[in-house]
Amino acid sequence: MKKALISDWYYVNGGAEKVIHSINSIWNDFDHFALIDFLNDEDRKFILNGKKAKTSFIQKLPTVKKNHRKFLQLFPIAIEQFDLKDFDLIISSSSAVAKGIRTTESQLHICYCHSPMRYAWDLREQYLKDAGLTKGLKGLYAKSVLDKMQKWDLSNSENVDYFIANSKHIAQRIKKSYNKESVVIYPPVDVDFFTLEETKEDYYLTASRMVPYKKTQLIVEAFNALPHLKLIVAGEGPELEKLQKIAKKNIEFVGFVENKKLRSLMQKAKGFVFAAEEDFGIIPVEAQACGTPVIALKKGGTLETVVENETGIFFEEQSVEKIKEAILYFQTKTFDPKVIRKHAVKFSKERFEKEIKEFVETKFKAHKRTLK
Q1: What is the distance between the alpha carbons of residues 266 and 269, in angstroms, rounded to a whole number?
Q2: Span 200-256, pLDDT tens digits
Q3: Are the CB atoms for 344 and 293 separated by under 8 Å?
Q4: At CA 41, angle to CA 40 and CA 43, rounded to 5?
C-alpha cells in the first residue's frame, strides 16, 4: 500500500499538526504534500519525522512566508497540480483545500476534516470584516473570489470517499456544507505530557494565537473590570501589542512559551479562560488534563469537551459582560482536579491512533475488494 498524506500547509505546530504527528506515529512511510512547508527543524522532526513535504508553486511566491493567505485564490489551482496517481491510499488533513486533491476511482481518499473551508462558508462574513473588505471594489472582488472558492470546495468534496470529522460540531457542518456523512474521531491530546497538578495558585490563564477570532481582547477587557483577579496571557500574534496597551496591571503577558512552560502555567492556574468558538479546541482539553477547570464559550467543540459544573463552566456569548459574569460565578465554585483529569484522558493520543488505524484499515480492505 503506497500512501500519501496531504495537508493544507506546514508553518506552525498547532492542533492540525498534532493530528499529522499521530498519523505518522501509526504509519511512518507516507509521502508528504502541502501547499507550503516552512517548518523549523524542531517542528519538522515532531510533525513529519524529519521529512520535507513536496510543495506547490505557492512555496516560491514572494512574501508567501510572511502571509500565505493573500494567495487564497491560487490555492485550488495549486492543490490540483499535485500528481498522486501512483498512490493507493491518500489521507488529507484539511480545513481549506487539501481535500481537493485529484484522485482516481482506484484510489481511496479519506479526509480528516478540521472544518469545511471557513472563509468560504460559515465564517465568510467575519473574514471579510476582519480584512476590511466589506465595501467598495475590493469588497466586491473579495466576495466574488469567495463565491468561486465555495463552488470549488463543494464540487471537490466529491473527491473524498470518507470524511472523518474532528467533532460532532464539524460533522454537522460537513453535512450542511457538503451534504456528506462523516464519522467523528476526536483529535489527539497529549495527556501523558499535560499531567495532573492538584495544587493551584491564585491566577487565571488564557493562551492562544493573538488573532481576532480567538477573542482574547474580550478576556482582557473582562479582567480589566476585575482588577482584584490576576490573568496571565500566553501567546503572540498581530493583536498582542494592542492588547498590551489596553491591559491593566492585573494582567501579565508572557508571549510565546515553549511546551514545558505552558504546561507549568496550566497546571498551577486556578482556571483556564477560552473565548473562541472552535471546531474542537485542543488547548482546553490540555488544561483539563492538568486538572485545571475551564471557563469557555458555550458553542462549538467545547460543548463536547467540557462538562458543565464538573470540569468547567460556560458563558453564553462572546461579550465582556458575559465573561465577567462567568468568572465571578466560577469564583464561587469548587472543582476536583482528579475528576477533571479523568475526563480529559478520554481524548488521549492512544485513543485517537487506535480509532484512526481501525477506520483506515477497514475501509482500505473494503476498497480493495471492490477493485477485484
Answers
A1: 5
A2: 999 999 999 898 889 999 999 999 999 999 999 999 988 999 999 999 999 999 999
A3: no
A4: 70
Supply the Cα-derived Rg of the chain in whole angstroms.
21
Residue 325: what residue type? E
Block residue for cell numbers 502555567:
265
What tens digit of pLDDT does each residue of 327-354 get?
A: 999 999 999 999 999 999 999 999 999 9
Name the least confident of 6-10, 65-69, 99-103, 126-130.
Answer: 126-130
Would you say residue 372 has pLDDT above 80? no
Report d(CA 323, CA 71) in Å as an integer: 36
The C-alpha atoms of residue 195 and residue 337 are separated, in whole angstroms, by 11
For 118, phi and psi rounded to 5 degrees? -60, -45
Cα distance between residue 344 and residue 107, in whole Å: 36
Q: How high is the pLDDT of residue 103?
A: 95
Q: What angle do CA 207, 209, 213 make, to 5 degrees?
A: 105
* 3 state SS for 111-179: EEECCCCHHHCCCHHHHHHHCCCCCHHHHHHHHHHHHHHHHHHHHHHHHCCEEEECCHHHHHHHHHHHC
- Distance, in Å, from the CA atom of 98 to the CA atom of 104, rounded to the nearest integer, reads 16
Q: Extract the C-alpha cell encoding 187.
A: 483529535
Q: Would you mind telling me the total number of residues written for the chain in this entry? A: 372
Question: What distances in angstroms separate CA 229 from CA 127, 201, 266, 274, 317, one per listed residue?
Answer: 33, 12, 17, 16, 21
Cell numbers linked to 343: 475526563
What average pLDDT does the chain have? 94
Give the separation between CA 213 and CA 70, rounded to whole angstroms. Answer: 18
**In contact, 53 and 10? CB cutoff 8 Å:** yes
Asked if the model's pLDDT at residue 8 lies above 90, the reply is: yes
Contact, 71 vs 82, CB < 8 A? no
Percent of all residues in the chain with a pLDDT value above 70, rounded to a whole number = 100
Point out which residues pair with 113 in neighbouring strands: 94, 165
Task: Please state whether beta strands 3-7 and 231-234 pair in parallel, antiparallel, or not at all (unpaired).
Answer: unpaired
Asked if 153 contacts 173 with a C-beta cutoff of 8 angstroms, the reply is no
Q: Closest by alpha carbon to 224, among 329, 294, 323, 331?
A: 323
End-to-end CA distance of the chain: 15
Distance CA 62, CA 227 (A): 46
The pLDDT assigned to 126 comes to 75
